[in-house]
Amino acid sequence: MDHTSLLDRLTHHYNSIPWCAALLGRPDVIEFIPTSRLLEDAAGHSPTQDQLFRKTLNNNDSIPHCIGFYRDPFSSNSSDPSSQPIPRLLIKSCSLIYDLCPGVNGFNGTAHGGLISSLMDEAMGSLIFINHQVQTREEAQGRRLPQDVLDLNNVRFFTASMTVRFLKPLYTPQTVVVTASFNKIEGRKMSLDVTVEGKDQTAFAKCDGLWMSLPSRKL
């Protein structure tokens, strides 16, 4: 299966769930395969080398489906850049939709807290990754990004800390949306906000994430 076929299959699956279809059906929404589920190349290599979400949890008992989406930053419906922090990310927010099955449970039919934290970490990583992908695509087409947008070409980010607040038990099986949003950049520090919500926008968990940057040559 190639990238396009996989994305089509995931889109078809989530369009069969009415509230997910409403999220994906907005005219300025762009779907993507989460970084941890990107396919291996012919040599068996994956861009992120992820094993937990791409292999271990990728089964019918754990997380059989997930898809990412963000709002087109070049759409007329996007937020006004003048109201955003400087420097900023081109794509301010992205969401991952997960189908969670009982294989991710910890206590009493609810998703394990460590797994919920991992979902939020994945959403933050996907936000940074998709920003870099869009930057690469725009530059390949000869378009320069706005001057107030952070250049991700020569820097890499890693998770430094996560302050997680569990708000309600997350019973499975259940489909949830995990949304990571850019907050601010101060020096080498990037602050992100994350929420885990259900179909009625019930919040199960929130997180204040801190990511640190290093020049690419040091990684």
Automatic annotation (TrEMBL):
InterPro entries given in the database record: HotDog_dom_sf, PTE-AB_protein, Thioestr_dom
Gene3D superfamilies for this protein: Hotdog Thioesterase (3.10.129.10)
Pfam families, per the entry: 4HBT
All residue ranges annotated as the Thioesterase domain in the record: 108-202
Name of the protein described by the UniProt record: Thioesterase domain-containing protein
Organism per entry: Coniochaeta ligniaria NRRL 30616
